[in-house]
Every structure is written in structure tokens, then in C-alpha cells.
Amino acid sequence: MWYLAHGVFRRVFAPSITAFQPDVVHGHDGLALPLTVRVAQASGAICVFDSHELEAHRNHPLIWAMRPRIQALERRFLPRVNAVLTVSRTIASHLEEHYAIKRPTVLYNAPPRTPAPLPQRWKGSPRMTVRYEAELNATAVLLVYTGNIATGRGIEQTLQNLAELEQNAQDQRDIHLEVVRQNWTAC
Question: Out of the domains of life, which is the source (predicted)?
Fold first, then answer.
């Protein structure tokens, strides 16, 4: 299905996106890669692709014939983009080595270890924070998970590591894992 869907994307969306005459076309999934490249070529736009995961190694299981087809599409289209973004050095190395492309730019999908102060316009009331909604004090360690809850997302390992951390903790810090979904619903 994945392999065929890119053709449907191109036929349905390419004409209207190309007519828009974008300056930059940004694709954000392997499914959109062929469309992204073709629209950028047709419109003269800069082409950026966000490879936020390895498409051929995604969490959902692939039938045996899909991985080589996905890799063939990536081999064909990734060298045609102006810039590739990804979320880890490991994925950047994989893409660079397997597809002979310029090393992708890594944009971590996580906050910095030492947070910078928020601009005033971004500051909201304490009610808008996960910490406030979970009724945690400032010294509690807060881990926040956002995203799909599915196998292969690291949730099982996180829970196992939290249990081990609690058993082996030298200090008695309060450690919380909050799962955030739409509308700030914390679990």
C-alpha cells in the first residue's frame, strides 16, 4: 500500500501545490518524498525532506517485499533534495552512508539539557504546564512522553528503566512519567 500511495499523492496533490509556486517544499514522511521532490523540481522550489525516522525500519511491521521498495524510492529521491533533516546522529549516518547524500542536519526532537529562558510572549500561566496539571513541585523529576502509544516507541524500556531507577536510587527524588495527549490530558 505504501509503495502505491506515493503515486496517488503525486496525482492528487502535485498540480495544486505546484500551481501555488512555493519557494520551499518540505516533505515530512517517506510517503511524501516523491511528491516533495517532484513538486520542488516542477516549481523551482528548494526541496527539504524531514527524515524523522528510517522509513524502511518503521515501527509498524513491513511485509518482506516492502523494505527493498521503500529503500529504492529513498535511493532514487533523497539525492535530489537540497537538504535532509533528521532527529539523531545515528539516522544521519545511516542516510549518509546508504544513500550517498550530504550528511543530514540533526535537529533533536527534545529540549536542551539546560533550558533557555522563554521569551515573555510564550510565558503562560502555570496552569498551562504539565508540571502544574500533574501537581508536581519544582524539585520532582518530570519525564514527559508525547506521541503515539505503540510497540517499538521505547515505552516498555522507559517503564522498565524507571522501575530499576526507583529500586536503585541513592537519593529519594520524586520521579514522574506523564503521558500527554491532546488537550493536555495527563495520565
Answer: Bacteria
- Check: CB of residue 89 under 8 Å from CB of residue 106: yes
Q: Whole-prediction pTM value? A: 0.66
The CA distance from 142 to 175, in Å, is 6
Tell me the mean pLDDT in the region 20-39: 92
What residue ranges do the domains of the chain occupy? 2-106, 120-184
More confident residue, 37 or 68: 37
User: For 2-106, which CATH superfamily applies?
Assistant: Glycogen Phosphorylase B; (3.40.50.2000)
Q: What is the pLDDT of residues 68-105, one digit of tens each?
A: 888 888 999 999 999 999 999 999 999 999 999 999 99
